[in-house]
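seq:
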Amino acid sequence: MAWNDPGNSSGKRNPWERRPGKTPSNGSGMNELIKQIKKMFSSQPGGGMGVGAGAVFLLLLAVLLVLWGSSGMYQIPNGQVAVVTRFGKYQRVEQPGRGVRLPWPIEDAQLINTGEEQRNAQLRVLTNDEAFVDVVFVVKYRRVDPAAWIFNVRDPESMLTELSESAVREVFGHESMAAVLVPTRQLFAAHVRELMQSTLDAAESGVTVNGIDVIDVRVPSEVKPAQDEVVKAQAENTAMIAQAREYASTLLPAASGDAAVIREKAEAFKSERIATATGDTERFLKLLPEYQKAPAAIRERMYIETMQSIYSGARKVFVEGKGNNVNITVEKSAEQSTSAVEVRAASTPATTPAKGVAK
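struct:
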């Protein structure tokens, strides 16, 4: 029912007026709270603030101001610097020792370590021959520009961790498993450092990477048996290639020697044929005037000489006989063949001519 409802028998009523029979509450309302505070600092029964209470209040306020002002004095340890900001804006960098700044929240100082620090990490990398290796490495770095470390990179700690892992994957991922497992793997650390430093400089992070130490590179236990088989197969492949090259190294010189001998024989044969052809040409040119004078005599002479040259190097078989008596003579030398023909031609009767077969 509303306060001024016509059916209300009590007539118009004020919601803030006191009800009959109720006493006002001493602990309710803002006025009562103020009265209680004044009563705490009052030395008079009437509730007013006395001179002593005012002095205590001022003294307390002064103490608070001194404490607040002294909060701007702080100590900067060795190996660290303080980056001072005013309402979040960069102001200056203070060196180790006693530092002074305006109290918070006007100015704030953030301590940054400028000495060398290191991060230990272990990362699983896939090499270019599709093998997994665990790389254990240490990143050594130093913050040379604390202001850039705070303001130029949103999350420098995470950035440094992700950058080191990315550089290790980039370098070791382009190598074979056999290459990264050998002791010379420390050479890859220099490349990792170069990649990290170039990226940090591009981001103006204010960080210098002093070095990368590759502590260990090992094959994960989960895939070690399979990778051992791969290594064994690669070793066998390398051994077979070496054997093939050794065989080729012994075969090629012999083949080269044979080829040289064949070339020499071919050159000698070529020279001989050219010389023979040249001699024949000169001989025929000398015979040409004689041939033109007496063609028939020269033709017969050339025929006899040709046949003599043919039969002088051929094996001849002579068969002669009368009735059932057959005599076969085989002559090999040119002298014996010529003398045999002459003897048989002289001793053989005209009625029994000799028969000669040349093979």
